[in-house]
Design goal:
Elements: H1 33-45, H2 55-67, E1 71-75, H3 78-89, E2 96-99, H4 109-113, E3 117-120, H5 132-136, E4 143-149, H6 158-168, E5 172-175, E6 183-184, E7 187-188, E8 195-199, E9 212-216, H7 219-228, H8 253-263, H9 266-283, E10 290-291, E11 299-300, E12 305-310, H10 318-328, E13 334-335, H11 346-349, H12 377-385, E14 386-390, H13 397-413
Parallel strand pairs: 2-3, 2-4, 4-5, 5-8
Antiparallel strand pairs: 1-9, 6-7, 6-11, 8-9, 10-12, 12-14, 13-14
Helix pairs in contact: 1-8, 2-8, 3-7, 9-13
Amino acid sequence: MSTSTVPAASAPDLDEALRLPSDQDATGRTLGKEELEQLREVLASGILTSTRGTAVRTLERRFADHLGARYAYACSSGTAAIHTAVAALDPEPGDEIVTSPITDMGALTPILYQGAIPVFADVDRRTGNVTADSLAARLSQRTRAIVVTHLFGNPSPMQEIMELARSTRLPVIEDCAQALGARSGDRAVGTIGTIGCFSLQQGKHLTSGEGGLVVTSDDLLAHRMSLFINKAWDYDSPTPDHAFLSLNYRMSELQGAVAMAQLGKLSVSVRRRVAMAERLTRALAGLPGVEPPWVTPGNEHSYWRYCLWVDGRELPGGNQELGRLLRSRGIGCTPRYIQKPAFECQIFRLQRTFGQSRFPFTLARPEALDYASGRFPGTFAALDRVLVLPWNERYTEEHVDAIAQAIRDAVVQLGGRRS
């Protein structure tokens, strides 16, 4: 069905008083006097390194308690958290780690740096998350681990995935960079698998600008992770040595201070995100061509982002055209989230790694590197449908109602009926 659209320049914008808060600056963040007080204490101590200070260690203890994990270790980024988790499992060169093709590259390059091969599983077209069935289809005798990404804050179906993991005796790394505060059943994400990884980057639920955290309840993996973050130097040993190849991924005391103050606000922030997201979902009920986030029954979404799933058969132009109309009304949004699956990026397509070596791809089975589009119907369908709206804890009912009205107006403009 064809339709005409109003040029962007003549489309109504959001009222100036309803400019949406952004998590890229102070308008969408909860940074304030609590963070300043924690920073003042660190600066007054004169100790900025976490090897001698107390802020990062306090953060680690409180974060573990908050999630219900036995151990938590802070590091320099979410990428460092994934790298620490993979290194703790100590894969052999050429081992395979099954993961998602809809993820940040920072969740994939650590696998390559440890000499392992990322093997991509397809995803559920309704959520963009991997499933037990899609993971099982990619397992081989060389599989060493599974990485589960909880995309946008929406938990993957962990009950089925953990049943698969137990039956195959494979460890599960949960990539919770976007999902702090989400739950699957009665468990916080990050505590269900073997290791959980979190990001404290600028736009995450809890931020220190950059930073990451890894959690586990496994004693041996916890020790190895704590070492990997510290160049494999055991500060608690009477005879320390550099035990194995590793990096300096430490978090500074300044970052730890900010994160510790942020942690005290986390529960309220997540509740606010969820309440406003649920309000938007109710407001969009019955709207043709647009589906709200689909959450596995028993799970709790923590809404790092709010995603619309757009049916291009009902709305001509699909997520791209709806996104264009919303941006013309002052509502930032991102069709597709990422423009292409990770395996279509040059690092995988051209195997650009270490010099001209192509290592570790040279060790891979041909099937592990089969990126034919026919193997990933859910992946391409999800990217073709998803429209990602920014979200943060500063959104009010007025903001959400304005967003809902803009979406309804755009759907009508694209030819959808008014519900």
